[in-house]
Design brief:
The protein is 27% helix and 24% strand. By secondary structure, the chain is an alpha/beta fold. The chain folds into two domains: 223 residues, Class I glutamine amidotransferase (GATase) domain (Rossmann fold); 305 residues, Alpha-Beta Barrel (TIM Barrel), CATH 3.20.20.70.
Length: 554
């Protein structure tokens, strides 16, 4: 028997590439049913529309124009019906963007987007930041569900400067990156848009989505502006990483080892360590306050059709209950399916995005691509996995996982590679070392140093570096600070510090002694030696700004 109380509906614009599955899950979690806008005529019957988007301003506007959406969208907005833009959906409302000179936006709001100045800060701007009123103001009536103490998840390289909309009559919530103030959210009348991703902003983001869907305007906590000024800006990101593989019984498990060895050394034959089920652990870390969750697939699943890979189901189920960014690594490469069909790295990545991933991580293939890049005299051809995926989904969707190990030398003259003078001397008293890149899970070293690799992948379009260290992996002795700071000096894109975290003080150390953009933990969380919540509480006690877990009050 059909229900006499059908779910309220929202129409979702489906024209721009990106991970839309997370938004679908968030909307359905809030009790709304989704209808799709796949042609301009669908807007005629829509009562409430959300325009999400990830990636390039020019690609977005060209897609809209080619599909005939530009004028119908303007007409829908002018009709007074509720309209929400997310990320590129916000950017499209403005007149233009420096990302695509000559390509007009919808022009609903005056102003143009500019790229963040890269001096002293990484670009893209990735992480949890504020959306607070401008100085001396309160949230305007056009803004939905925002709270001054909340943090929201941003990932973008271009933004609308605050001065571009000052005095325009639009209500604005402000984000701050370094010394730049930009539009974090904007609204007036029936129009509301966020530069951040509410579907990836935990309870705070779900609250914003719910407010829009239910027609609730300004937050009841719109005052108290002055007291929030000290906590505006980007937080320290704490990421939980799960190495996932099939154990000897064929079950998917989360595993952790020492220097990439995941088997129990005490057991005869060495069984694979089993530290828990991936979806359950990911949900636990989300509840504890993890700012992101990363899955690294270290099993090839060669006998599975690509469309039925176990990790796709892990992502689908995780994205239904975890509302922070999800990264998946392992197997993002050109492949041949079980029926002999050739599948490109872009197609593989697309399957992961459609299943709920926000980013894909590329490892060994990035090293091979970098070697070819240098052989060609630093020529970009657009045919690598990094280039094809970042070209379709934006650089913020591509993480390169780097697995270096130290090679000690007595003098810089002993090697053509980039060396550092190290405080930790080698086995024979060597005072210098270089970091050799490896592939195949650290089993094979290559004649390339880590600085060469990160420069190459940055040029190809990678948006973030996951910086591991084989020497530190599983040691619980802290991060390799010298490696992290060397890489941060080399490139402008964000860096995630990985390998070696054993207690909360290691996170404090890496955030205070390097300029890393995020830090990742694994074994210490899986073994419950410390929780994500304990790490973040420790950092807060040390006056390092972190995102607090908000009570679920929806």
């Amino acid at each position: 028997m059909a229900s006499s109380n059908p779910k309220p509906t929202v129409h979702l614009l489906d024209t721009v590439a990106g991970n839309i599955r997370s938004l679908v899950n968030a909307i359905e979690h809030l009790g709304f049913e989704i209808h799709w806008v796949r042609s301009p005529s669908d807007l005629l019957t829509a009562e409430r529309v959300i325009f999400p988007g990830v990636g390039h301003f020019g690609h977005c506007m060209q897609t809209l124009t080619a599909a005939g959406f530009t004028e119908p969208l303007k007409a829908f907005i002018a009709s007074g019906k509720p309209f929400m833009g997310i990320c590129v959906g916000l950017q499209a409302l403005f007149a233009s963007s420096a990302e695509s000179p000559g390509t007009p936006g919808l022009g609903v709001i005056p102003g143009s987007l500019k790229r963040f100045e890269s001096k002293d800060k990484a670009v893209p701007h990735i992480g949890w930041n504020s959306a607070t009123p401008a100085a001396g103001e309160v949230y305007g009536e056009g803004l939905c569900g925002l709270r001054p103490h909340s943090k929201y998840y941003y990932v973008h390289s271009y933004a609308v400067p605050l001065e571009a909309v000052h005095g325009s009559g639009w209500d604005v919530a402000v984000g701050r990156y370094g010394d730049e103030e930009f539009v974090g959210a904007v609204g007036r009348g029936n129009v509301f848009a966020t530069q951040f991703h509410p579907e990836k902003s935990g309870v705070a983001g779900l609250r914003v989505l719910k407010a829009f869907l239910e027609g609730v305007k300004v937050s009841p906590l719109a005052g108290a502006v002055e007291e929030v000024k000290a906590v505006t800006g980007l937080t320290r990101r704490v990421i939980a990483c799960l190495d996932v593989r099939a154990n000897d019984q064929g079950d998917l498990v989360v595993t952790k080892g020492d220097q990439y060895d995941v088997r129990e050394k005490a057991a005869a034959g060495g069984d694979v360590r089993n530290l828990g089920k991936p979806v359950e652990l990911a949900k636990r870390y989300y509840d504890e306050g993890a700012d992101e969750v990363t899955f690294l697939n270290i099993t090839s699943f060669r006998d599975c059709p690509l469309a039925d890979l176990p990790m796709l189901e892990v992502l689908r189920r995780t994205s239904e209950v975890v509302f922070v960014p999800l990264t998946i690594g392992g197997g993002i490469r050109d492949a041949v399916d079980t029926d002999g069909t050739k599948v490109s790295a872009l197609q593989v990545a697309t399957m992961y995005f459609q299943s709920g991933a926000d980013k894909v991580s590329i490892g060994s293939d990035a090293v091979i691509a970098a070697e070819e890049y240098y052989k060609r005299g630093k020529e970009l051809r657009g045919d690598t996995a990094i280039e094809s995926i970042s070209g379709a989904y934006g650089c913020q969707a591509v993480v390169v996982s780097v697995d270096p190990r130290r090679v000690y030398v007595a003098s810089p003259e002993d090697t053509p590679r980039n060396t550092i003078k190290t405080a930790k001397k080698g086995p024979n008293g060597e005072e210098y070392c270089w970091y050799q890149c490896t592939i195949k899970g650290g089993r094979e070293g290559r004649d390339m140093d880590v600085q060469q690799l990160v420069l190459a992948v940055e040029a190809m379009g990678a948006g973030e570096i996951l910086l591991n260290c084989i020497d530190k992996d599983g040691t619980n002795s802290g991060f390799d600070l010298e490696l992290i700071e060397m890489v941060k000096r080399t490139i402008k894109i964000p860096v995630i510090a990985s390998s070696g975290a054993g207690n909360p003080s290691h996170f404090q150390e890496v955030f205070e002694k390097t300029t890393t953009d995020a830090a990742l933990g694994a074994g210490m969380f899986h073994r419950r030696e410390y929780t994500v919540k304990q790490v973040k509480e420790f950092l807060a006690e040390k006056n390092l700004v972190v995102r607090e877990v908000e009570e679920y009050d929806l």
